[in-house]
Amino acid sequence: MSAARRSPEPLLSFSSAELRSAESTIVFDPKPLPADPDAPRKRWYHYVPVCVTVFLILVFHPSLLYVLVDFHLQTMHQPVIFMIHLLVTYTLTFMALSSLIVCVARDPGPANAPPSRLEGASGEGEEIGLTEALMPDHDFSSPARWCRKCWAPKGERTHHCSICGRCVLKMDHHCPWIGAKCIGHRTYPAFVHFLCSVSFLSLYVATLSIHALWYAFNNPFAVHEFTPVHELVLAFAGVAFTLIIGSFAAYHIYLSITNQTTIENITPFMLLRHLPPLPRSGHSLSDPPLEPELSFKQRRLVRTAHGRILVYDVGWRKNLSQVFGWTGKYGLLYRLWCGGASPGDGKNFPRNPRAEEMLAKLAKALVDADANQ
C-alpha cells in the first residue's frame, strides 16, 4: 500500500493578523472604464431638448401673471387669493426645475463603482474589505451578470445603454429630454418627481384659467378685452400638458407600485434570464433560453407569463420604500423638494417569493413545448 497522499500546500498563506491588517489598509480606487468607442459623442444639439423643456415650463408665466393681476387684483380685488395662486404656481415651478437639474446633473448610477462611492453607503472612506474585493458574492459567469460591451461585471437590473456607451444601475430608460441621459437608480425618484410636479402645475394652471375664463364669459364687460385670450391659451396648454405629462406620471407611479422599470415592463423576454436551470437533455434550448430560438408558441407563453410574473414585486409599500424611501430627519423634505435618489446600492434587490415557483412553471412549459415540436 502506498502512503496516503499529502494534500498540496497553498502557494500563499496569510495569518488572521495579516488579513486584518490588509483589510484596514487596502483602498479600492478603480479607474473609470472607457466608454464604448461605437457610442456617439454628446454634441451641443443633444442639449436642445432640455432647453425646450425649460422653455415650455417658463413660457406661460408672463400670461399667468397677467391673468392673476388683472383678474384677482384689479377685477375681483382678492389680494390673498392672488398671493396663494402665486405661491402655489411658483413653488411647483421651483420643484419641477429642481428635480430636472438633478436628472441632468447627477450620474444615473455608476455600475462598476465600489459601494462606498454610491449615495447612501454606510462607509466613511473609499475602502473595501480584502475578502469582498477578492471573493465577490455574485456569479458573474451568468450572461445577465456580465456586460460584453463594457467587459465588466454588472449588478442585478443593470443594463447597458448603447447610446451612452455604459452600464447604468437599475436602468429605466434613456431620455433625450434631459440632456440625452439615462434614468437610473440615482435619478429615477427625481424623474418621477419632475413628471408629477409638471402635471400638478399644468392642472393647477388649467383650473385657474378655466375659472377665470368662465367668469369672463358671464361678465364680458367686467374684464379687460385681452384677458380672455390669455386665459384661453393657458387653459388649452394646461389641459394638454396635464393629459400628456400626467399620463407618463401615472405610468411611472404604476411602475413604482409594482416595482418594475420601463425596460422590464415593455420587454417580456427579460423573464428568460430569471428562469431556473433547465434540464440537460430532452430539449434544444439554451440555458437560459434565447429569444431568437423560441417558437411562436413559446413566445406566446413568455408574453402571457410576463403580465403575471413580477419578479421584484414585494408589496406596494415595500416597493415604494425601495424607490422613494428616506432616512434622516429631513429626508421627506428632500424628497418633496427634488426627488433625490433611490436608497440602497442599486445592485441587489429582494425578490417576490412567489415568482420562483411561477418561473419554474414557465421553464417547464417552455421545455414541454420544445419537446412537442
Lay out the secondary structure:
Blueprint: H1 16-25, H2 48-58, H3 61-75, H4 79-105, H5 130-134, E1 146-147, E2 152-153, E3 159-161, E4 166-168, E5 173-175, E6 181-183, H6 188-218, H7 227-258, H8 262-266, H9 296-306, H10 316-324, H11 331-338, H12 355-371
Antiparallel strand pairs: 1-2, 3-4, 5-6
Subcellular location: Membrane
Membrane topology: Multi-pass membrane protein
Keywords: Acyltransferase, Lipoprotein, Membrane, Palmitate, Transferase, Transmembrane, Transmembrane helix
Protein architecture, described:
The chain has helices spanning 16-25, 48-58, 61-75, 79-105, 130-134, 188-218, 227-258, 262-266, 296-306, 316-324, 331-338, 355-371, and strands spanning 146-147, 152-153, 159-161, 166-168, 173-175, 181-183. A two-stranded antiparallel sheet has the order 1-2. The protein has a two-stranded antiparallel ribbon with strand order 3-4. It is elongated and about 85 Å long. Helix 3 packs across helix 7 (227-258), helix 4 runs antiparallel to helix 6 and helix 6 (188-218) runs antiparallel to helix 7. The chain is mostly helical and 373 residues long. The longest helix is centred in the middle third of the chain and has 32 residues, at 227-258. It folds into two domains: 48-266 and 315-338, no CATH class; 274-311 and 350-371, no CATH class. It contains twelve helices and six strands. Mean pLDDT is 83; it is low at 1-5, 22-33 and 116-136.
